[in-house]
Amino acid sequence: MTSTNGGDDRRTGSDITRSLELLWGEGGRPARGPKPGLTLDRIVTEAVRLADAEGLAAVSMRRLSTELGTGTMSLYRYVPGKGDLVDLMLDRVNTPPEEDEPFTGGWREGVEAFARETLVLYRRHPWLLHVNQARPVLGPGAVGGLDRVLSRIKPMGLTDPELVGVIVMTEGYVTGVARTQVHEMEAVTRSGLSEQDFWAAQAPTLERIMKSGRYPTLAGLTDDSFGPDFDHFEFGLQRLLDGLDALVARRRAEA
């Protein structure tokens, strides 16, 4: 379940009722004239593949019809427009992965797993960061994912609004990290400069500025302060979990 704000507003041109029908399997087949081999599942799969490869802007009904080898009007028999298609794409990628074994960890492991899975989700589907999901149309994928996370963190003993708050807080943290990582990857692609080459180009100027004495605190940092060996995501995640741990312990003591 993602809740990124900003980017495309898929509600434009989207029919909420129709999207719900499609998401919950109540209207996935065209009334007439289906093209053999064309299904709603295949359309959504191709749309996600195209968005992963070229970004959400590349996904249009005309482009999809070309990729699928069918006429554009054939697609409209399955899905009314791009807004509804994005609703289906979001639910598809938010469907939780199948688990080989039942989850046996505690609430801390549950939050941690949710955070790591969300980071992987954004890295696998960078276009998610450009979709406004402030008002999602909930399908079986998103609902199933939310139910799974709640079942894992329920033992925290917090109130229901607080449990939802844990999810919102964790997701907000991961989204920020994911945005930075995705932007870094996009910058390398656009500029052709690696991360190392980019900072190496600035090194002479920065060294001269640091020696000027104008920024003594920054200049006094150790050489590895901004190095690649420090895992900022892991550091922040563990501090978030430590804070929740303190809250759970206090609630248990009060009880």
Automatic annotation (TrEMBL):
A single GO molecular function term of this UniProt record: DNA-binding transcription factor activity
DNA-binding interval(s): 60-79
Pfam families: TetR_C_1 (PF02909), TetR_N (PF00440)
Domain of life: Bacteria
Residue ranges occupied by any HTH tetR-type domain in the UniProt entry: 37-97
Xref: PROSITE patterns: HTH_TETR_2 (PS50977)
Biological process terms in GO annotation: negative regulation of DNA-templated transcription
Xref: InterPro entries: Homeodomain-like_sf, HTH-type_TetR-like_transc_reg, HTH_TetR, Repressor_TetR_C, Tet_transcr_reg_TetR-rel_C_sf
Record's keyword terms, sorted: DNA-binding, Transcription, Transcription regulation
Protein name: TetR family transcriptional regulator
